[in-house]
Amino acid sequence: MPHAQSPIMKQMHLVGFMHSSHVVLSHAIWRHPQTELGFLGAEFYQHIAQTLERGKFDMVFFADALAFPDRHGNSFELGLKYGAQGVVRLDPILTATAMALATQSIGVGITRSTSYYQPYDLARMFASLDHLSKGRAAWNIVTSSRNSEAQNFGLEKHLEHDRRYEKAAEFVEVVTKLWDSWQDDALILDKESGLFADPSKVNYVNHVGEWFKVRGPLTVPRSPQGRPVLIQAGGSERGKDFAAQWGEVIFEIKHTPAQMKAFYQDLKSRLGKFGRNPDECKILPAITPFIGETEAIAKEKQALHNELIHPEVGIFTLSSHMDYDFSQHDLDAPIADITVNGTQGIFQAARELSQSEGLTLRDIGKLYGQGVLTPHIVGTPEQIADQLEALFKDETCDGFVISPAYLPGTFTEFVDTVVPELQRRGLFRTEYSGATLKDHLRSPSVRPLAKV
After folding, report:
1. Which of 98, 238, 328, 450 gives 20 to 30 Å between its CA and that of 163?
2. For the segment 26-57, what is each residue's pLDDT rounded down to a tens digit?
3. What share of the chain is helix, strand, coil (3-state, %, to 5)?
4. How far is CA 53 from each of CA 103, 139, 333, 343, rounded to the nearest angstrom?
5. pLDDT at position 335, please?
6. 280: which DSSP letter?
């Protein structure tokens, strides 16, 4: 009798998370004995992109900020001395472009702020990257969160939280109009007739709004994806609505499976009011894997990593992300009920942890230094795959953002050991099925590989 076929399965998405820097989310990265400190050179980033492409990742994307961190105690001394997040940041448009030119299939995304760039400049930047990468560009939309960023752009104070989302909504509207100012077939390039382009298929934008006045059209022809992929990470009520309206990929940091599932259900439920199907938006929580030949070895790797965290660096970074000086609070008390103008979703997660688990500000600082509250997934490749499969099948996410504990080793180990296990179970692609990042984000249903 013929064997019954395995059931059709939905596949997860995998994204590599990076900073153009010596660290990513974990402060331990630059100190780790297996980390290569090549973060000022193009080859460092190109090797990471090639590794993730070998693992058939959807994309790699870069977080970014536009100021030196100095909110904690109104000084950058501690952060610079111990190498906190943000004291070095290359411009990610350049590292992402270097990655794109060294690869063929993997998507490349960068963060750009709607508060301190102009729509025309940004639209041209991403359309250009989409052409140079042959359709693999993504924009991580942020509103920025710190007064120190405002002060680098001639302002004294950053916009209030909801007002910056109002500005962001108009900003994205203008950018998409600019991307759409060229029709797909506007370029003719007929040498014999001398016709370069069809003027009837290129249009002015003529946008006039509260925040922006932009004439257009864009000087970059319609790019391979038309509109590059939009990434968002809004965690506040206003931010989640913004993400539901625009985001094709939603990056989130939640410390527990319960928090992941609540966010997933909430965000997916908001898509309908913007006329969107739930599958149009991929929600990907960050995780940091520690992989070992045995569970004991994996736990040893995690312990080594955690021991490398300077006790004050996490609180220093928390102050920076929240745009709030936590040096004025008791380290051995729970996080106070305060108002911050910074990253709302992560602060809410920190407050919930402090309250539900009785954690002090010192405890939260330690966790924050280990990875900005990103959960650690620890075990053998099979155990890691088990945990990711359970989260995926419980509808807590559409896949995962992999945040490294050391570089490039975390990515190499994950690609070489966990990805094959996910592929064997039919949970992840074995080959790219299309040429563009938008192609990667369409979820084909597949059958798991046959056991041998």
Report:
1. 328
2. 999 999 999 999 999 999 999 999 999 999 99
3. 40, 15, 40
4. 7, 19, 45, 31
5. 82
6. G
Which of the pair, 2 or 409, is modelled with greater confidence? 409
Q: Quick check: 100 pLDDT over 80?
A: yes
Q: How far apart are CA 358 and CA 451, in angstroms?
A: 46
CA distance 193 to 438: 35
- In the predicted model, is pLDDT for residue 231 greater than 70? yes
Distance CA 243, CA 101 (A): 29
Residue boundaries of the structural domains of the chain: 9-296+373-446
Give the model's pLDDT for residue 229. Answer: 98
Calculate the dihedral angle through the C-alpha atoms of 364, 365, 371, 375, rounding to the nearest 10 degrees: -10
Q: Which CATH architecture has domain 9-296+373-446?
A: Alpha-Beta Barrel (3.20)
CA angle 111, 116, 120 (to 5 degrees): 80
Which residues does 20 contact at the CB level (< 8 Å), separation at least 6?
39, 45, 62, 64, 89, 90, 91, 92, 94, 95
φ/ψ region of 100 (left if φ > 0, alpha if ψ in -120 to 50, else beta) reads alpha
Please report the pLDDT score of residue 321 as a whole number.
87
Provide CB contacts within 8 A for 200, sequence distance 6+.
none
CA end-to-end distance (rounded Å), the chain: 18
408 upstream amide cis, omega within 30 of 0: yes
pLDDT at 8: 63
**Nearest residue to 286 (alpha-carbon basis) of 75, 18, 71, 95:** 18
DSSP code, position 153: T
pLDDT at 451: 43
